[in-house]
Amino acid sequence: MTSPARKAVVFCDFDGTITTEDMIVSVWRQFAPPGWEEEVRGIYEGKRTLKDGVAAVFAKIPSAKRDEIIAHVRRIVNFRRGFAGFLDFCAASGIDFTVCSGGIDFFVEPVVAPYQERIKRLYLIPADLSGRNIRLRHTMTCGSCGLCKAMAMDEHPGVFKILIGDSLTDVHGAEKADLVFARAKLKEILTERKRPFEPYESFDEIRETLTAKYPQLIRKGA
Q: Does residue 142 contact residue 148 with C-beta atoms inside 8 Å?
């Protein structure tokens, strides 16, 4: 992995990374009509893109469910161990922390609102709730991803890019990053492809790894 001599920026996934559970799947289980599992199966079988599959399921959910969805996510959300402390660590170390996720803006933003002062930017998929059902607006897509993390990273030239993720949606970002922290499906994919990464199960572990192995990233008092 490259030895950094640049400012570091974290690009962190939300569903299954910041949270211990995938909030999108939880919303589908609670609010999508029967048959949504077929749409998801089509994604993993390569019959449709991730972008189109996710949009198709949300298109079956009434926009009027907005407040119920937000309340549901707030009620069940569980942040991965060490998240708040990691935000403090990044702020004290001169490392910018961004949320870079295929999550949906109207229910992710309220959940991370208590941490907003320590989050430099949110990259999320905007939802149009003006119609009968939820429509996703793909403003940063490569065609296959609902939100292309590699494209988000391109908006930050010259920085040392750290990706933290867990799934298929993080693969393009992992290819662009200088340093990757991976777990679950992303870890499996990178292992198969023989791509370097640092494993993690908590943000405490990420902080410890950065401190021990990448001290040049840390700019105290920055």
A: yes
Residue 46 confidence (pLDDT): 86
Residue 52: CB atoms within 10 A of its CB come to 17
- Nearest CA-CA partner of 167 in 153, 152, 180, 154: 180
User: Pseudo-torsion of CA 192, 195, 201, 204, nearest 10°?
Assistant: 170
Of 52, 58, 64, 16, residue with least CA distance to 36 = 58
Please give the span between the terminal C-alpha atoms of the chain, in angstroms, as a whole number: 24
In the predicted structure, residue 147 carries a pLDDT above the cut 90: yes
- Cα–Cα distance, 141 to 143 (Å, whole number): 5
Measured distance CA(195)–CA(7) in Å, rounded: 23
Tell me the two tokens of residue 155: 């908006």
More confident residue, 76 or 145: 76
Q: Reduced to 3 states, what is the DSSP secondary structure of residue 186? A: helix
Give the integer Cα–Cα distance in Å for 162 and 82.
17
Q: What is the largest CA-CA distance in the chain?
A: 53
Both tokens of 186, joined, read 């992303």
d(CA 140, CA 148): 6
Give CA–CA dist 208/181, Å, rounded: 12
Average pLDDT in the 124-144 region?
96
- For all residues of the chain together, what is the average pLDDT? 95
Query: What angle, 0 to 180 degrees and rounded to 10, lies between the N-to-C axes of helices 203-213 and 83-93?
Result: 30
Q: Say if residue 3's pLDDT is above 60.
A: no
Q: What pLDDT digit, counting tens, does each position of 179-195 carry?
A: 999 999 999 999 999 99
